[in-house]
Amino acid sequence: MKKYAIAIHAGAETLKPGELDKKKEEAYRQGLADALKEGYDVLGKGGSALDAVEAAVNSMERNPMFNAGRGASLTQRGETEFDAAIMDGNTLRVGAVGGVRYVQHPISLAKVILQKCKHCLLVGTGAEEFALANNLPLKGPEYFVTPEKREAWLDKQQEKAGKKAMPGSMTDTVGAVALDINGNLAAATSTGGLTNQMKGRVGDTPIIGGGTFANNEVCAVSCTGEGEAIMRGVLAHEVYAMMKYADNSLQSATEKAIQLHADKLKGDRGILSMDTTGKAAFGFNTGFMKRGYQAADEEPFVALWESEKLKKPAKLKEMEK
Ligand code: ASP
């Protein structure tokens, strides 16, 4: 049997059990299960890792619970702005977008850039014109801005005016990594950025090697958390480098990247990675990371809290023998 696997995340943030509303917890788990299934089904039909990570991320971009596409966080101006990137570990081709506002599925625009554009990264209106020229669906603010995010934005304005104290901001960037039956790896990440970020701010997500990276020789990686720290630490590429040049296992490279330069680069970090055997590793310093994993013919695994551990799928173990 050919091996294939997919793993996803929908952001990491500092949170303890009991601090999350039960209904929200359920909705997160359902959203993760839905996205995992979309990606897994593509792989099960013999589809490519690139198509699988796009399908999983599209599902989370549609889901207003997550900070990507519909339901994304708002900037200081009360608007949504999206960053996304996708990388093909086979060809090392990349497509990325920064600061787009009207594209329904930023990750699909990134994929069209990867496939058709001589450049890797397009931003703002240039990226939107490219989306239009390639018949990708565009939407207005009424589609992207949900009442919950509008309320969080209003709270933030009151907090700034000293009228209200805000709880920690929700940062639910989404991402996926996959291995297909042909041994190809891919990574994809999509985000609405940080709550209340400056207009025009671009995070780590579309910075290749920062928030997103894939190379068939070693691994595929998608990051979440404080974008400024992640891009300064070049964390996605560090996972690759620690495996390639320092012989680290996937798990140890992912865990080390979570701690890297922690004295200088503060903030929440979450890293999802997958190696050439389809094993996945989840690293985070937050106690909470929305995540999921499914390998060929195995049951799906969905988790939120640190205490929920991923067991190595039995069939994957057998395949390695
Ligand atoms: N990394 C994203 C950014 O800084 C945010 C997140 O992952 O929550 O734009």
UniProtKB/TrEMBL annotation:
Q: Where is the signal peptide?
A: none
* Entry GO MF terms: hydrolase activity, acting on carbon-nitrogen (but not peptide) bonds, in linear amides; peptidase activity
Q: Which residues form the active site?
A: T173
Gene3D superfamilies cross-referenced by the UniProt entry: (Glycosyl)asparaginase (3.60.20.30)
Q: Which SUPFAM superfamilies match?
A: N-terminal nucleophile aminohydrolases (Ntn hydrolases)
Question: What InterPro entries would the database entry show?
Answer: Ntn_hydrolases_N, Peptidase_T2
Q: Which UniProt keywords apply?
A: Autocatalytic cleavage, Hydrolase, Protease
Per the UniProt record, the site (Cleavage) maps to D172, T173
Output one GO BP term.
proteolysis
UniProt binding sites for substrate: R201, V202, G203, D204, T224, G225, E226, G227
Against PANTHER family, the record matches this protein to: L-ASPARAGINASE, N(4)-(BETA-N-ACETYLGLUCOSAMINYL)-L-ASPARAGINASE
Protein name according to UniProt: Isoaspartyl peptidase
Q: Which organism is it from?
A: Pontibacter virosus
